[in-house]
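Re: weekly structure request thread

Next one in the queue (216 aa):
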Amino acid sequence: MALRNAYDALPEDELVQAVLAREPAAWPTFFAKYERLVISCIRKVMRRYGAAFNDEDVEDLVSATALNIVKDDYKKLRAFDATRGYKLSSWIGLIATNTAHDALRRRAPTEVWQAVALDDTAPVPLQSEELLASDALEAEDDARELRAAIAQLSPADRLFMDYYYVQELDPEVIASLMSISVNTVYSRKNKIREKLRIIVSKTQPGRTRKGEAPRA
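Done, posted below.
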């Protein structure tokens, strides 16, 4: 495949330096390299929170992500530190994810923690016209209980949840930020999830969720 320009052949670190030096064509080459990742991260956030969006919305958020990287003399790009153990692609993905989150917060008050399922393998319930009123009320109660339970966690556990569920950082990035091993990231996630189960069960010991048999 033919190279579009000389910057296509540069190693990642040299391309970044070329961007920061404002060399001609460096920025378009750099952003084209990560544009598909940016789009993927944006779509993931919008779908996770059940937000209505179209191709134009995604295009606007891609442009907003590019602006967030470029503004203040590439402040966010300059903040990337490869010695902390994570990839540049993860850093760019984080900027895109945060850009999408910021857009949702401006669009309407967002129940951020409603998307944090106690079992992260379960699908996130989305609001739709087909959702019955009783289901909506139950979902609202669940979100309220979960927020109350999260408030009882330690500051470190809440920070971990923000990294893992809200910012959706890679385990390697979380490990680096919190000075723990990757294995500890996974075990801590399970421990926090169990803490939340216990807190919620103590708050509503007799409550039975739809489709769940009553406990003896």
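DSSP finds eight helices and no strands in the chain. The two ends are 65 Å apart (CA to CA).
Next request, please.
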